[in-house]
Amino acid sequence: MRYLYLVFAIVGVILPYSEMIPFMIENDNDLWLLFEEQFQRRSNRFFAYDLLLTGTVASIFILYDGRRNQVKNYWFAFAGIFLVGVCFGLPLYLFFKESARAD
Question: Tens digits of per-residue pLDDT, 18-69?
Fold first, then answer.
């Protein structure tokens, strides 16, 4: 399972950034525009709110569970949620956790 989690973490970087990088290039790195567009329509807000809540819960889970189970490098997965997204940070944490069990 740990390698499946690692594959999901890698895909979790590639997919979001395949959209983010062209958007930022086309819009002169305007981060404010990115956030503005994210909340313009109800359908966009649905996904934005879902991801904000999911990211918050995943962050709390990673911090709590990582300390409790002494998972090495759990802080990297926590940071990954904020630097990339939940689609990277959560599978990366699960990879770390499974790797710790295998050792």
Answer: 998 999 999 998 889 888 888 888 888 899 899 999 999 999 999 999 999 9
Residue 64, token pair as written in the block = 């709590």
Hey, what are 84's tokens? 């990339």
H helices of the chain, in order, are: 2-26, 31-38, 42-68, 74-83, 86-102
Name residue 47's amino acid.
F
Contacts of 87 (CB under 8 A, 6+ apart): 8, 11, 12, 15, 16
State the Cα–Cα distance between residues 85 and 72, nearest whole angstrom. 20
Rounded distance between C-alpha atoms, residue 99 and residue 36, angstroms: 39
